[in-house]
Amino acid sequence: MTFKSTNFLHVYAQYMPHHESFIVGNKKALLELRKMIDEALKEGESVRDFTASDLEDYQTFVINVADDDVELFESLEMPYVGQYGEVNSNIFFVNEISEGSKPRPPISLYKKNKEHL
Fold it and tell me: Which domain of life is it from (predicted)?
C-alpha cells in the first residue's frame, strides 16, 4: 500500500454553525470522490471505500436529494460534530436512527443497502 495507490481521504465536518469543513485527500481519492458525485447525480447515490491516514478503511456515501424534496433535506440532523445545548433539535447533532424520527441521520437516505442502518 502506497500513498499514491490508495484512496486516502479525510472528511472534516463542521464543529458548530459557521465553522469551516474540509475534504482533504490525495489525487487518487479526490478523483474517486468526483466519480462518486457524478454517479450520485445520475443514479441518486454512490458509496466507495476510502482510507484515513491511520490506515483504517471506511465507507463514504454521496447522496443526491431531489431539488423538490426540501422537507427531506431539512429533516436531516445537522452536520456539526459538537453537541451543545440541553435540547436536541434539527440545529443540534444527534445520532438518532429510529424510523421516522427527526432529525434523522444521513445514512437513512441510502436506498441500495439498508443493512448500513
Answer: Bacteria
CA-atom Rg of the chain in angstroms: 15
Its sign, for the CA torsion 68, 102, 19, 86, is: positive
Question: 60: closest CA among 90, 83, 82, 40?
Answer: 40
SS3 for 104? strand
Higher-pLDDT residue of 46, 15: 46
- CA nearest to 44, candidates 53, 36, 52: 36
Alpha carbon distance 109, 77 (integer Å): 12
Tell me the three cell numbers of residue 24: 482533504
Q: Where are the domains of the chain?
A: 9-116
E strand intervals along 2-99: 9-12, 22-25, 45-51, 57-63
3-state helix, strand, coil in the chain (%, to 5): 25, 20, 55
33: Cβ contacts below 8 Å, ≥ 6 apart: 9, 23, 25, 48, 60, 62
